[in-house]
Amino acid sequence: MKENIVTMKRIVILTGAGVSAESGIRTFRDSDGLWENYRVEDVATYDAWLRDPELVINFYNERYKQVKAAKPNAAHLALKKLEQKYIVDVVTQNVDDLHERAGSSRVLHLHGEITKARSSEYDDLIYPYPEEGLKIGDKCEKGYQLRPHIVWFGEAVPMLVKAANIVEKADIVIIIGTSMVVYPAASLIHYAKRDIPKYYIDPKASNVSGVSNLNIIADKAGTATPKLVDELLENA
After folding, report:
1. Which residues contact 161 (CB under 8 A, 6 or more apart)?
2. Is-catalytic flag, 190?
3. Calpha distance 70→79 (Å, rounded)
């Protein structure tokens, strides 16, 4: 006699800066291209790293301290609850570890992770970020300076193909806290099957061209996400 096997549905969550903003983590988009009073070109590009690596390191040391002091908010915690009844993949543009600290077990970081450093020459040599912060002279095992494990503007996004493959398998997609205008991350929603339900949570959320079955929820992540999660769990 064959057993009835119930296949859990897959939910893919695409998150951006808005999901962490309520935990006190800002981005350069908060104020006219400035990121904590720095020009993005001075701290978040490879040219900036070549020009003034000490400035770049000091900037990310401050971001690391900011992330360590932050705590997951209601949106992060709600997403973990979905794992009770769904297979859940979080694909985030954020470099913080708040999804992981909230308990989400499958998190893919498109733009790197502030909690890690890597060799400036060998991308696969990755280390925990030093608790005391990075400094000039910290080197990988092959003798090259360590840099923040961050995808800077103008650099390739190595996890993009893997993220697209994840989105293709989704039964439900939830977009939270992202403008949906910054590429290549904004392209991921177009890999989702046309007929599946999609939800877009953001105070400035609006229709996205070419995306079908999109439910707009124009509200903050911390308010709207727990409500949607409860609804999805109830209807699972």
Report:
1. none
2. no
3. 17
137-165: pLDDT as tens digits: 999 999 999 999 999 989 999 999 999 99
- For residue range 34-89, list pLDDT tens digits in order: 566 788 889 999 999 999 999 999 999 999 999 999 999 999 999 999 999 999 99
Token pair 């932050």 is found at 70
In DSSP terms, 10 is beta-bridged to 87
- The runs of H, that is alpha helices, within the chain are 17-21, 40-43, 46-51, 53-69, 74-81, 98-102, 160-168, 221-234
**From 99, 109, 111, 149, the catalytic residue:** 111
Long-range contacts: 143-146, Cβ < 8 Å, 24+?
A: 144/119, 144/120, 145/53, 145/119, 145/120, 146/117, 146/118, 146/119, 146/120
Query: Which pTM value belongs to this model?
Result: 0.92
Give CA–CA dist 163/38, Å, rounded.
Answer: 30
Segment 123-136, tens digit of pLDDT: 999 999 999 999 99
Instruction: Return the closest-CA partner of residue 161 out of 185, 144, 135, 133.
Output: 185
